[in-house]
Amino acid sequence: MSSSPSRVFVARLVGLPIFDPTGEQVGKVRDVVVAVRSEVHQPRVLGLVGEVFGRRRVFVPMTRVTNIDAGQVYTTGLLNMRRFEQRSTETLVIGQMLDRSVRIPSSEVAGTVYDVAMEQARNRDWVISRIAVREPGKGLRRRGQTHVVEWRDVEGLTHRDESQGATNLLHAIHEMKPADAATMIHELPPERRSAVVAALDDERLADVLEELSDDDQVEILSALESERAADVLEEMSADDAADLIAELPPETATVLLDLMEPEEAEDVKRLMSYVEDTAGAMMTPEPVILGPDATVADALAHVRDPDLTPSLASQVFICRQPLETPTGRFLGAAHIQRLLREPPSSLVAGALDDRLEALRPEMSIDDVAAHLATYNLVLAPVLDEAGHLLGAVTVDDLLDHMLPEGWRDGERGRRQRRAVPRG
């Protein structure tokens, strides 16, 4: 190990890139694996949980780590690409140790684990050396005092905490992109996953659910109270909500649709009425739609919405009233690249692409793929026979339906998973 800091706080490692000796990024740090023997002996750091391409989690032994600094982790480049499987004798610092209730007997302080520090011992092994403990907030103080103490000065780290919260784990999850947060939640032990799901707000949970596999989506949503499940579905994009509801038992689906706001439920029901894997079933019913009197400045203001995906923000559709799908007569689409070259005060209608061919809702997934590929599109409108805009298919919608089942878990078959050798 060369040029490594003497002490590294684990929460600051999460999300750091992992590089091989040539400087090529091979993954990201997602957690730290330790072996906790007792409250007397310092836990030995066995390695890192790294996420490599395809959202697969692998084990990176500390013996393969050559350097850690403020911005990256370097390895020998010799990584075992088998999926990480946690053993019963191992503890995940981020996933299981944060938020654990502990005491500092010398000062009679009680609190929760806020962070954990590791450092190299004289024998070159990495060990857990310090624990950051945060007291509960008092009065008007939002956060309690934090104490950083030696490992041996803390009680409760080796005991299972049935009431373990998720405050500090949530902080780490909120710093991640939804896809990365979904991977983290997928890998959590069941009790920790339940605590995190319960603590997430509806909007963030919806973002994460959209990135999880069908099995995880159904498991999490089924565990929620019906009222909250309906609220979360309302926060999801209509096409993702429709896909998820279709996986639920019919009686559960009916209850949740009845609890949703009528307008939100109507969009979902309309998408569910189309045959699976057709343009109608995979389309998004809420692209950017403007009237013929909209200006270029209006269009650019709409596509600046941070909640829009890059593909949805690539075009605006111009329609007659009403502007909610199904709209009035579809007039055409304007590409943002073109609008950026136009005066802000000019009408979007003057920059319409009148050669753009639309999709029909009954078109198969293969036909949709061929259409997007032929015209080099990331977004295409879907029209009915009367020329009304029903929605739009994005390239990410298409990929979600074309990739093999289980791609979100980074594997094709869970039965072939094996334990990863440590060392």
Characteristic terms for this protein:
elongated, seven-stranded mixed sheet, CBS-domain, alpha+beta, 22% strand, 15 helices, CBS domain, 3 domains, 423 residues, five-stranded antiparallel sheet
Explain what the structure shows.
This protein is an alpha+beta fold and 423 residues long. It has 3 domains: 1-176, PRC-barrel domain (SH3 type barrels), CATH 2.30.30.240; 201-273, MgtE N-terminal fold, CATH 1.25.60.10; 289-402, CBS-domain, CATH 3.10.580. The protein contains 15 helices and 17 strands. Strand 16 (379-383) and strand 17 form a beta hairpin. The longest helix is centred in the middle third of the chain and has 11 residues, at 262-272. Keywords: CBS domain.
Q: What is the compact description of this entry?
A:
One of its GO terms (cellular component) is membrane. The protein is of the alpha+beta class and 423 residues long. The chain has helices at residues 93-97, 167-174, 178-187, 190-199, 202-209, 214-223, 226-235, 238-246, 250-259, 262-272, 279-282, 296-303, 336-339, 365-374, 395-402, and strands spanning 8-9, 17-19, 25-35, 44-52, 56-61, 65-68, 73-75, 90-92, 101-104, 109-120, 126-134, 146-150, 289-290, 315-319, 330-335, 379-383, 389-394.
